[in-house]
Amino acid sequence: MTVDTKPVWGLSAAHLVTDLYSPVLPAILPLLIADQGYSFFLAGLIVTVYNLTSSFVQPLVGWVFDTRGFAVHVGTSVAISAIFISIVGLLDNYFLVLASVAVAALGHAFFHPSALGTVSRLASDSIRGRITSYFVIGGNLGYAIGPICAGVAVGLMGLPGLVVLAVPGIAIAVALRRILPAPDRAAVPETRAPAAKPSYRAVALLVAASGFRAWAIFGSVAFLPTILTMRGFDLVTANILVSGTLIAGVVGQVVGGVLSDRYGRKEYTIIGLVTAIPPFVVFLTTEGILSLAALIVFGFILWSTFAVTVAMAHEIAPGNVGLVSGLMLGLAVGVGGMGVSVTGWIADMTTLTLGLATIPLAIVLAVPLFLFVPYPWKSLVRGRLPSRG
């Protein structure tokens, strides 16, 4: 089937800009810990507040998009994120930091459900994994670039230098207002048949499983710059290594999307999660080139399952793509954000290495939940060969 991918790539570009600001907080945690004297728990709580605020708002935004066809323009979303993340470096009051982070998270929340709902309606089930991955990799690239931008800014000018990041964000937001229509105009037809009710059990299991995976993803990203600096890397180099891990995840997203179209989404998700555990254990227990190579492999495999499960959610609830997008990119990520605080608390009580041992544990907890999701197998069905389509 031929699909016009230009709108998808346009939204992917907007996704890149929006998500550029998401990893700035983990990137500057080492400086917040050193300069402001925050504990691992308080530092992790900053990331948690960001994720939880976005998490609780995104399903509501998705529901409004599904039922009313209304969405905040992507340019406005980017501007909110850019301004309120960038001023964190100017604040020396912990509660003001939390407030600014929460407002920035609103900008992040406004974007995803409507944009991803639009992408879903442009794809058929046979290519949904690939098309969804095109959109998601924009966010992954932004997430990969963010630590580099933050690392360079604070490396040269300290925490106040973070305000420089507001300039490109605002400029791009203005450009987006000029070149992109409001998401609701393109995504929601004036009339449509009532949607069938989704399987609530399937959605609940999928969101719960994705929550544990989000703990693994964001728990590792939150503290990777810190553990790498503890191993002797400077902050800029540490954030470049984290960005390399995230870029590997970008490649993994496309590979995972294509393979899931061919061999099955459930199959790919389970295999991907199980095979992501060994490289992370190698990263924690070794040093040098082997450790860094294992980290890159871990990023490639774990992130490769993300777009696949979003595509699963859209197929489970085709009439509620905005809502399930908000649940998958919002609520599930928020649950994972709570795990970041748990990882930080264990690190405070023991060591950061032991705290990061919660990452493979979270993946182990996710696997059976994904197994129980009532979603059809494709390759692992008795007497059936993989589709050649």
From TrEMBL:
| Keywords, sorted A to Z | Membrane, Transmembrane, Transmembrane helix
Q: One Pfam family, short name please?
A: MFS_1
CDD domains the record matches: MFS_FsR (cd17478)
Please give the PROSITE patterns that the UniProt record associates with this protein.
MFS, SUGAR_TRANSPORT_1
Could you tell me which InterPro entries the record lists for this protein?
MFS, MFS_dom, MFS_trans_sf, Sugar_transporter_CS
Location comes to: Membrane
Q: Which Gene3D superfamilies match?
A: MFS general substrate transporter like domains (1.20.1250.20)
Taking the first listed entry, what is the main subcellular location of this protein, grouped into a coarse class? Answer: membrane
Q: List the SUPFAM superfamilies hit by this protein, alphabetically.
A: MFS general substrate transporter (SSF103473)
Cellular component per GO, a single term: plasma membrane
Q: Where is the Major facilitator superfamily (MFS) profile domain?
A: 7-379
Q: Name one GO molecular function term.
A: transmembrane transporter activity
How does the protein's chain sit in the membrane according to the entry? Multi-pass membrane protein
**Chain segments annotated as transmembrane:** 38-57, 69-88, 94-111, 131-156, 162-180, 200-224, 236-256, 268-286, 292-311, 323-346, 352-375
Name of the molecule in the record: MFS transporter
Q: Which organism is it from?
A: Methanoculleus sediminis
